[in-house]
Amino acid sequence: MKTLFPIILFALFTHSFCFSQSIDSKKQWEQLNKGSESERIEAAKKLSLYYQSESIDSLRMVGETLFFYGIDNHYQPAIEFGKITLAEFYVMNGRINDGIVMAKATLPSLQERGDMALLSRVCRIIASGYRKLEDGNSSMLWAKKAIAYNKDNTESPDKTEGIISLAEAYLLQNKEKLAIESYEDYISKATKSKNYRGLSTAYARLGDIYRVSENLTLAEKFFKLSYQMAQKTNLTSPKAHALNNLAIIYFEKGDTVNARLHFQKALTLRESVHDVKSISESLYNLGDYHFYIEQYSKALYWYQKSTDLAKRNSLLKEEKDGLLAMAQVYKEMKQFDESTKHLEKALAISSDLKLQQSADDEDLTNLQHEIWRTDFEEFKTAEIKKESSFQVYLLLIVTFALAVTVILLLVKLNKIKKMPN
């Protein structure tokens, strides 16, 4: 059974921390699909920053749309940014090594033209990938690269890119003091630029650091600051995550009334925007809440609601989690037949989940192969151009040599003609 406490916004701090507090997504999608070349890229940038918080699957759609537009229209900047967006999606979606490799492949061309903004972003994506792999040294290396590139990025309003990745790398290396200092540095810079989205995340991570070290007073302080910053955005996820964090800290402090109130607030917020997956999570959280205070019948009620919602919307993982949770409750209640029945249902769903995962993996692998094919064609085109350039250069040399030879011969013949017989 999932515990109550690990739901502290792991999804938040792996994302890019942007200034986009809210966007008109419909308008940006229209620009992405129908705009000029530059308008499509700008729309993709805004949508990718937005969906990193609100919808990972939509992030993939943005990357694919731009990438294939670039392929169809032979427009390299669209291909490039599409690949960067998809690399971030792969990292966030669990295909971490694939995402890292995809991101690294974009670096040479970015370095060649000195695009500091995208270099910083790509390095941050790579650092995030290594953090997920729990490779603290590599994560720190790439985080520092992101920070270094961002210092030379004239487009960056507050120079914060990479700082949170650095803080997380310090945490992986058990350097808590340095991690806290990095978060404080981030907060200082993000406050000046009013980057409320990033501030909400940074305060939440500080709160979690203090929660783990059992300093619940400081943890509550930072979780409250996180919620205050989240309220200044028009994004649902930061506010819902902040409410969940406050619920957790109240629960750990023994304030069960406030804990339940904040879990309920998070649920209401998610219901207001019809975020089905997150609603299922909130219902599950309420089940966890009642389970931990041994109100088993109420726990069953909320787990059942979470499971039913997941089933209606084909959310297999969430449905399976709900069934496993109910099996655990029935076990605590000594109703072993019911517990076994729910376990069997969960096992049956596991087979469907594996099939779905296999289909998703195959789909993502096919997409990756398409990207590799593009990279190969791009490499071959560059080689052909290089070979053609060499041939042209060689032809010019030969032509020049022949011209000089002819001129010398003509001069010599002219001298011979002028000589007296």
Itemize the secondary structure elements and their pairings.
Layout: H1 10-13, H2 25-34, H3 37-54, H4 56-73, H5 76-93, H6 96-105, H7 107-113, H8 116-132, H9 136-151, H10 163-172, H11 176-192, H12 196-212, H13 216-231, H14 236-252, H15 256-272, H16 276-292, H17 296-312, H18 316-332, H19 336-418
Helix pairs in contact: 2-3, 3-4, 3-5, 4-5, 5-6, 5-8, 6-8, 8-9, 8-10, 9-10, 10-11, 11-12, 12-13, 12-14, 13-14, 14-15, 15-16, 16-17, 16-18, 17-18, 18-19
Short key terms for the protein model shown above:
421 residues, mainly alpha, Serine Threonine Protein Phosphatase 5, Tetratricopeptide repeat, 19 helices, elongated
What does this structure look like?
The chain is mainly α and 421 residues long. Among the domains are: 196-266, Alpha Horseshoe (Serine Threonine Protein Phosphatase 5, Tetratricopeptide repeat); 275-358, Serine Threonine Protein Phosphatase 5, Tetratricopeptide repeat, CATH 1.25.40. Helices cover 82% and strands 0% of the residues. It contains 19 helices and no strands. α3 (37-54) runs parallel beside α5, α8 (116-132) runs parallel beside α10 (163-172) and α16 runs antiparallel to α17. The radius of gyration is 29 Å and the shape is elongated. The termini are far apart.
